[in-house]
């Protein structure tokens, strides 16, 4: 299992955010509670702020050393009360951020998140925390942190969640957040948003129940849409845990998108007319030849090895 997982937001975005907070703190216009909430939400925020603050201090010292600014002790030119308070607050904020990113420091351990990653074609089972078990599908990345409630970040791919009583879990995805009661769930990031299926249990928004067993929520830009699914649909949602892909009349385009999740050498359509084919059946995600043989037997589709190791589909 690889340890690589691209962090979101990107480093450049975090640096810009940290620099904006630094400027606001220095100017005295920052909401300190809002800053601390931003810094404490994610250890990467603390890292970015500590780095920006360190660079700012180094630049200040360099300017003094070069004579670009007149350096005077506080006893000669004391800062006014407001400026002094702001500088004290800024130094304190930078110090806390620095402590949070020191390996072995208590604050770092309290804010650090554990991580699990799978590459294409891999699956993994993780005992993440007391009462919390995770199964990662192919090409997936999650972070988690113990707490009350526990928190789970789905950064990429798909994860099955088993949450024991009496624990609660906050699931955080790029397009929304969910509060999960004890139960079984399946969360997947799709191009349209985060899809969360309730196999057992309930999902809450604050104190109000939003979803229960047999329902699926899709979060897009913080907004939910809810759909009911029957038992066979839920079985399809969890089929990946049995290394299978269940299709029920979907297009070949869709079928290939699903199968290719598990393949390093992708299957592509060489004849656009094939896209209109409708596919049904249960196929092993670990054995693409079974899928290709079914296409050949049912539709006369030929699989040709491509120059880059992939497979091109065409009519015989």
From TrEMBL:
Gene3D superfamilies: 3.55.50.30. GO terms for molecular function: sigma factor antagonist activity. Residues 16-53 form the FecR N-terminal domain. PROSITE patterns: TAT (PS51318). It comes from Sphingomonas sanguinis. This is FecR N-terminal domain-containing protein. InterPro entries: FecR, FecR_N, Ferrdict_sens_TM, TAT_signal. The lineage of its organism: Bacteria, Pseudomonadati, Pseudomonadota, Alphaproteobacteria, Sphingomonadales. Residues 115-203 form the FecR protein domain. PANTHER family: PERIPLASMIC SIGNAL SENSOR AND SIGMA FACTOR ACTIVATOR FECR-RELATED, PROTEIN FECR.
């Amino acid at each position: 299992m690889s340890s690589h997982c691209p962090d979101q937001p990107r480093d450049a975005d975090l640096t810009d955010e940290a620099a904006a907070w630094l400027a606001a703190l220095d100017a005295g216009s920052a909401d300190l509670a809002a800053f601390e909430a931003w810094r404490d939400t994610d250890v990467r925020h603390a890292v970015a702020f500590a780095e920006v603050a360190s660079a700012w201090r180094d630049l200040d010292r360099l300017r003094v050393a070069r004579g670009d600014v007149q350096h005077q002790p506080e006893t000669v030119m004391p800062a006014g009360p407001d400026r002094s308070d702001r500088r004290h607050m800024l130094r304190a904020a930078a110090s806390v951020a620095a402590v949070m990113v020191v390996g072995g420091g208590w604050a770092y351990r309290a804010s650090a998140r554990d991580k699990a990653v799978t590459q294409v074609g891999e699956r993994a089972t993780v005992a993440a925390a007391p009462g919390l078990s995770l199964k990662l599908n192919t090409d997936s990345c999650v972070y988690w942190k113990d707490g009350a409630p526990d928190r789970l970040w789905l950064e990429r791919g798909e994860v099955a969640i088993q949450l024991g009583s009496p624990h609660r879990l906050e699931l955080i995805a790029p397009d929304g957040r969910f509060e999960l009661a004890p139960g079984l769930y399946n969360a997947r990031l799709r191009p349209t948003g985060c899809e969360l299926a309730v196999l057992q249990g309930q999902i809450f928004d604050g104190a109000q129940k939003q979803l229960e067993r047999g329902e699926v929520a899709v979060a897009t830009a913080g907004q939910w849409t809810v759909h009911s699914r029957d038992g066979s649909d839920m079985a399809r949602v969890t089929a990946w845990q049995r290394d299978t892909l269940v299709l029920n009349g979907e297009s070949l385009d869709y079928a290939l998108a699903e199968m290719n999740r598990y393949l390093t050498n992708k299957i592509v359509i060489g004849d656009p007319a094939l896209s209109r084919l409708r596919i049904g059946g249960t196929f092993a995600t670990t054995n693409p030849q079974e899928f290709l043989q079914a296409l050949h037997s049912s539709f006369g589709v030929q699989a040709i090895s491509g120059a880059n190791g992939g497979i091109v589909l065409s009519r015989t």
